[in-house]
Amino acid sequence: MTRRNIVNGIMLTITGICTVVTVSVLFLILGYLAVNGWRSLDFNFFTKLPLSPGETGGGVANAIVGSGVLILIAAAIGIPVGFLGAIYLAEFGGKTVPMLIRYTADLLNGVPSIVIGIFAWTVIVVPMHHFSAWAGGFALSLMMIPIGLRATEQFLRSVPTSLREASLALGASKTRTVISVVVPAAKQGILTGMILGVARVAGETAPLLFTSLNNQYWANKLGEPTASLPVMIYKLAISPYDDWHRQAWAAGLVLLVLVLIANIASRWVLSRGASAHRG
Amino acid sequence: MATAAVTGPIQSRPKKLVKFWRDGDQIAHLVTLIFAASVFLVTVFLVYELWIHSGPSRAKFGFSFLTGKTWDPVAEQFGALPFIYGTVLTSLLALLISVPLGVGAAIFLAELAPPKLSNVCTFLVELLAAVPSVILGLLAIFTLVPMLRQYGEPFLKRTLGFLPLFQGPAYGVGYLAAGLILAIMTFPFIISISREALLAVPREQREAALALGATKWESTWKVVVPYARLGILGSIFLALARALGETMAVTMVIGNDTGIHTSLLSPGYTIAAIIANEFTEATSDVYLSALVELGLVLFALTMVLNAVAQLLIAATTGKGSTQA
């Protein structure tokens, strides 16, 4: 064994150790959360409202529903903008304008989530004089748009030009071609982008802190402060009460499972699309 | 140009109009353009709003806002330095851990691991990037912080306590805890982007090095990594931008102290954390606009880093594709 071979062996082993460490972090997180969260999960957790400190039991039903509402609002804004915007970028745009929009989308994607929260506060909470689900949903939509937009554009672009040309050659208009040929061909990819967008915003806390705020009770209207799972986890975790910590673990487990399922689902949709194309 | 001049007049105006309405191409073009442009407009509007709402604070403090060390809401004296310091310190601490770990893992995944294993590991690492930050914060509060308080920080004080970096009481919460949690949040980015950059290096480069008698490590370290260095650097800048803007996990473990401390064990504050903690409590206009101005500073910092990162990543992948 020469010195060079020894160095070779040592360094390669170290890179292997790096990989083991990084991957095991995920399993540590999952395992720890599963053990602690599972102990705290019960039926009440999904059906009851949070109780005041000192009382045991209670749940976060309002936060689960609230998160659902916020994500629906975000998707209602974010998906059309992402989808139609991407069609412009991939199909109709020339060169300069799409480049500018692509650049700002990347910029928006990099804006810290807390800054997005400030923005939603200035444009919705301040004029309405109310923390509301609208403001929270709007903030989340801003985080969803760049992901949906870029993913959709990428998959539209990967549709072969020959498909478009075949459709145009049959006399179809450009719009007809996009609707009937290009979008269906890219639908798995587009779906993946949308799911990833939802998965990204589902766990976001910072943009909600001063937009949808939090609520110990049911929100009756979209114009009221609304509880959400991430904000609830935050509030429960920094509280001094053991029973609230228990709830935080359970809520954390539920949120993480939802987010991971969404991520894995997006992969699955994509791989199914890929094999369908090959077959 | 010449053909346009010839074909232009042939199609008469009414015919054009008919085609226009029948196909709906122009309408579709316009509608999709409006949606795409809204992305641009909303981003511009975001900057405008931050600028307007930070007005009172900018008028009152000017540039001294960036260098001021006091944060006193009662006396309405606001300086951003402790938060800028805390943000930069925790982010650099995070990179100190996540860069070697991330680049090492990326090398293993791109160069050594069989493709199947590499794909599975990359998938797992990308799942790690999807874990919501509030959940990492939750775990950090109940596991990392007590561990640091009981074992980690006393150990650092015993062994490296002569350095000013490791002095003072062991609270558990503070710069060190925030740096560690940020390391976990940043290495997925470094791994997945660096791996892409390494995979984009042409095979011939490796083969040439190996044919000259280099060991696997020598070919990787002296040929492949330098070839992909811009992409790796880009991933580090991207990770840094993420770390600077990260809010929840840091807010939960930073310790909320508005001073500037040399010791990593000391509680501190970051820009994102103080906004998260004090925004809904801000009572006066100046207080609120000082917080918005902090947001503006954070925005500017991350924008610059993101732009650099994008350029670097584009440079490597572009280079890789033309030479492959």
Characterization of the model:
The complex is a heterodimer of chains A (279) and B (324). Chain A is mainly α. Chain A has a single domain, classed as MetI-like fold (Orthogonal Bundle), CATH 1.10.3720.10. Helices cover 77% and strands 0% of the residues of chain A. Chain A is built from 11 helices and no strands. Chain A has helices at residues 3-40, 43-47, 61-92, 96-110, 113-128, 133-157, 161-169, 174-185, 187-202, 229-237, 242-278. In chain A, helix 3 packs parallel to helix 6 and helix 3 crosses helix 9. Chain A starts with a helix and ends with a helix. Chain B is an all-alpha fold and 324 residues long. Chain B has 2 domains: 2-53; 63-323, MetI-like fold (Orthogonal Bundle), CATH 1.10.3720.10. Chain B has 15 helices and 2 strands. In chain B, strands 1-2 form a two-stranded antiparallel ribbon. Chain B is flat. Chain B starts with a helix and ends with a helix. Residues 1-8 and 319-324 of chain B have low confidence and may be disordered. Chains A and B meet through helix 1, helix 3, helix 4, helix 5 and helix 6 of A and helix 3, helix 6, helix 7, helix 8 and helix 9 of B.
Q: How are the elements arranged and paired?
A:
The complex is a heterodimer of chains A (279) and B (324).
Chain A: H1 3-40, H2 43-47, H3 61-92, H4 96-110, H5 113-128, H6 133-157, H7 161-169, H8 174-185, H9 187-202, H10 229-237, H11 242-278
Helix pairs in contact in A: 1-11, 3-6, 3-9, 3-10, 4-6, 5-6, 6-9, 7-8, 9-11, 10-11
Chain B: H1 2-10, H2 13-23, H3 25-53, H4 55-61, H5 64-67, E1 71-72, E2 77-78, H6 81-112, H7 115-130, H8 133-160, H9 175-199, H10 203-211, H11 216-227, H12 229-245, H13 248-253, H14 271-278, H15 285-323
Antiparallel strand pairs in B: 1-2
Helix pairs in contact in B: 3-15, 4-15, 6-9, 6-12, 7-9, 9-12, 10-11, 12-15, 14-15
